Amino acid sequence: MKGFIDFIREQGVVGLAIGFILGAASKDLVSSFVDGIIQPLIGLIFGGKASLAEASILVNEVSIEYGAFISAVFDFMILVAIVYFGIKGFGLDKLDIKKS
């Protein structure tokens, strides 16, 4: 049993698992924040759209809808920040054994 626990700690499995769990649990919260607060504010900057996800540009009668991509980037960046500061804040980055 000790060998198994050492393997998990040496390979960084604990940090990976914690990051995955926090990321999955935070996704809905972050999406709600971006959809309800960030998108409307940025939508106002980009021409009065109700939501950033609706932002698009018309090129030769083809609509390029770039707003949904920008919205997904905001979701991702906020989620990464939450996971990073969560792991650092709780000291979870020190659970893994450093390889020598």
Structure description:
With 100 residues, the protein is mostly helical. It has a single domain (14-94), classed as Non-ribosomal Peptide Synthetase Peptidyl Carrier Protein, Chain A (Orthogonal Bundle), CATH 1.10.1200. Helix content is 66%, strand content 6%. The chain has helices at 2-11, 13-45, 67-89, and strands at 57-59, 62-64. A hairpin with a 2-residue loop joins strand 1 and strand 2 (62-64).
List keywords for this structure.
mainly alpha; 100 residues; Non-ribosomal Peptide Synthetase Peptidyl Carrier Protein, Chain A; two-stranded antiparallel sheet
Distance from N terminus to C terminus (CA atoms, Å) equals 22 Å
Query: What is the CATH fold-level name?
Result: Non-ribosomal Peptide Synthetase Peptidyl Carrier Protein, Chain A
CATH architecture assignment: Orthogonal Bundle
In this structure, how is the largest beta sheet organized?
Answer: 2 strands, antiparallel
Helical amount among residues, as a percent range? 55-70%
Strand order of the largest sheet: 1-2
Unreliable spans are: none
H/E topology pattern: HHEEH
Backbone shape = elongated
CATH class: Mainly Alpha
Radius of gyration, in angstroms, nearest whole number: 20 Å
Structural class: mainly alpha
How would you classify the quaternary structure? single chain
